[in-house]
Amino acid sequence: MEPLSKFKQIIIFLGDIIVFYLSLILTLWLRYGNGFYGNLFDYHIGPFSVILAIWLLVFYIAGIYDLKNLKNDLEFEKKFWYSLLFNAGISTIFFYLSTNINIAPKTNLFIFIIIFGGLGYFYRQIINSILGKNEAATRILLIGNNRTTQEISEYLKNNTQLGYEIKFWMKDGLKDKEFEHLFQIIIANNINTIVIPAHIKKDFVSASLIYKTLLAGIDIMDLAALYELVFKKVPLSELEEVWFLENITKKHKIYEYIVNPLEYIMAFIMLIVLSPVLLIIALAVKLTSEGSAIFKQKRVGKNGQEFTIYKFRTMKIDAEKNGPQWANYFKDERATKIGKFLRASHLDELPQLMNILKGELSFIGPRPERPEFVASLKKEIPYYELRHLTKPGITGWAQINFRYSATVEEAYEKTQFDIYYIKNNSPFLDLSILLRTIKFIFTNN
């Protein structure tokens, strides 16, 4: 099922490339007629191919290749047109700053953007409709009824483009009166996947009956696995210790050995390059409010070890005179005027480059929490301490998929994303987080 989702994304991606070059051809034909073949086309193809790479990257960062966003609704249209507008600005800057190309396409670029906007929008409307209306590739028999199954059912009903459809739902689980007619239901509803909670596998009679469906070519999937595929997080309420033994392993050790020295080198270079900026910010913080420019705070890192994290101070010096408090990151009355700007721009995080040099932080990983909060969250949230199996990061999967947590409920949600990251950590996932963090810095969403 995951390969099918990737295949759909590749089709959309290749379609954008075709639309891009078709728009270029139409632009040159409108400007020069049939005579655009030859040198004119050769002059344009190179620079515009560079622009294509930038455009595709922007579209990816904006999230318009995510299947959950491929719906003909207002949210998708906003993402598409805002991305196109941003790409138009980038393209204009590129052509006017480049001195080693043989074209200066003021009119051509304007015509090209208009044509691509029309063709691209029309293409996306068609492909989104096709994805939404075709029969789902994964036709599900769902067994059980709890918060997790309800969340999945509601989401899949409103996002048919994902390729999943719940064809039959046995809400009473093993006690459902239809359970003994399992094979008839599968045939009548053309079902190819059965989704079951983990506890059903422990029932010998039911497990034997479901096992027999394998011989009919039916896929059997854990409820937790479907939840992870759909939401890109793990459902803590559905997991047991055996799940972690099977899924949280040391398989990424080699990747860590490679990335750690690279992070050290990158942090060192960034500290040198950004030193003038760091100095200006430090002076601004020091001159506009009482207290030190650098704020130090204890955090919990890998294997539960405490360390001191560094940030530019964004709050008044007496902000926690009544003890530790959850931070409402963007609407915190304790923040100074310059502090609000530093938080909104995320410049307050720059001193954490020192933590990377000390080996306490990575660029990417679960966000480290304060010891006072960790002590209580470990009691409130199951498996919370597993966040500490990996080195914490400046940014992470939870940060780009969820807001800053200010309650236990929100910390629970973020933990589901953090454990997903630990389970699926890879260079590709890290690259995806890095690119989407760039978007988050500029948009805060």
Provide the structure class: alpha/beta
One letter per element, helices H and strands E, the order comes to HHHHEHEHEHEHHHHEEHHEHEHHH
The first-to-last residue Cα distance is: 28 Å
**Uncertain runs:** none
CA-atom Rg in angstroms: 26 Å
**Count of helical regions:** 17
Q: What profile does the largest beta sheet have?
A: 4 strands, parallel
List how many beta strands DSSP finds. Answer: 8
Shape: flat
Task: Describe the structure in brief.
The protein contains 17 helices and eight strands. With 445 residues, the chain is an alpha/beta fold. The chain folds into three domains: 132 residues, no CATH class; 94 residues, Rossmann fold (3-Layer(aba) Sandwich); 191 residues, no CATH class.
